[in-house]
Design brief:
7 strands, 280 residues, alpha/beta, Rossmann fold, 7-stranded parallel beta sheet
Length: 280
């Protein structure tokens, strides 16, 4: 952990994947206030600091990072934020949805992290932030594959951090609970209250200024996770049922307000769809 003075972000070149909406957009706004040179990578392009990025097109992802460095200079920070969360029963999920989640939520983060390291290691400095989820440390019915991908992001970040020891490169994993964005439309609060994307953005800025390996938003998610590891599995599952935490995503799966999001999520991995022959 970095124990010195808080790091300054003014002038730093920061790339945010999935930066056009939700947590990504809030993070871009928060970093702007810090004086960072923020570049958005997203399927939706708006403004001069936004480049079209499909994280499932790995060659394209690399080219976008090359383009950013040619325009703005070496990348100081990469925030792997792009992700989707289709909801529904696991047995009803088709292979196309499974693949899109794996490609965006996990393989995109793996590729982005590896590309960032290759660029940062020669300079001996840099910071990678991988946005996971509370579902990265606990399984949630109704979002089985999503939970699997977010567990993967946590494992990736933990393992890579050990490989990076002494390199000067920091890697942090941010794990939000339910965040009030399009992704969680129809999802109701349960044991842990939902947070705004601005709260998550503030946590990301804080971890860039004072690096830490893992940050929960809100902090109570981390407390619940630690308690859950100390008690028997049956008790923690009983607590989830009593508080209806095991129903929040299941019950939201068929919410009418999710229709537009689910459609957009099914169209959010053109590179994967082309590679695997899927039609959105």
């Amino acid at each position: 952990m970095f124990l010195g003075m808080a790091r300054q972000l003014n002038g730093k070149v920061v790339v945010v994947t999935g930066g056009a909406r939700g947590i990504g957009a809030a993070t871009v706004a928060a970093l702007d206030k810090e004086g960072a040179q923020v570049v958005i990578g997203d399927l939706t392009v708006s403004g001069s600091r936004s480049l079209r990025l499909d994280v499932t097109d790995r060659a394209g992802f690399t080219k976008v990072l090359d383009e950013i460095e040619s325009r703005y200079g070496p990348i100081d920070v990469l925030i792997n934020n792009a992700g989707i969360m289709p909801l529904g029963r696991f047995e009803d999920e088709d292979d196309a949805s499974t693949t899109r989640q794996l490609e965006i939520n996990l393989h995109g983060v793996i590729h982005g992290t590896r590309e960032a390291i290759r660029r940062m290691r020669p300079r001996g400095t840099g910071h990678i932030v991988n946005v996971s989820s509370a579902a990265g440390v606990a399984g949630f019915p109704g979002a089985v594959t999503y939970s699997a991908t977010k567990h993967g992001v946590v494992g990736l970040s933990e393992a890579v951090r050990q490989e990076l020891r002494g390199s000067g490169i920091e890697i942090s994993c941010v794990l939000p609970s339910i965040v009030r964005t399009e992704l969680t439309l129809g999802v109701k609060d349960a044991l842990i209250k939902s947070v705004t994307p601005e709260k998550v953005a503030d946590a990301i800025v804080a971890v860039l200024r004072n690096p830490r390996p893992m940050v929960f938003v809100p902090k109570s998610v981390g407390t619940m996770n630690r308690i859950g590891r100390l008690v028997p599995l049956r008790f923690s599952e009983w607590l989830m049922r009593v508080t209806k935490g095991d129903r929040v995503l299941v019950d939201a799966a068929n919410a009418s307000e999710r229709a537009d999001y689910e459609k957009r999520a099914a169209e959010s991995a053109p590179g994967a769809d082309e590679a695997y022959g899927f039609k959105s």
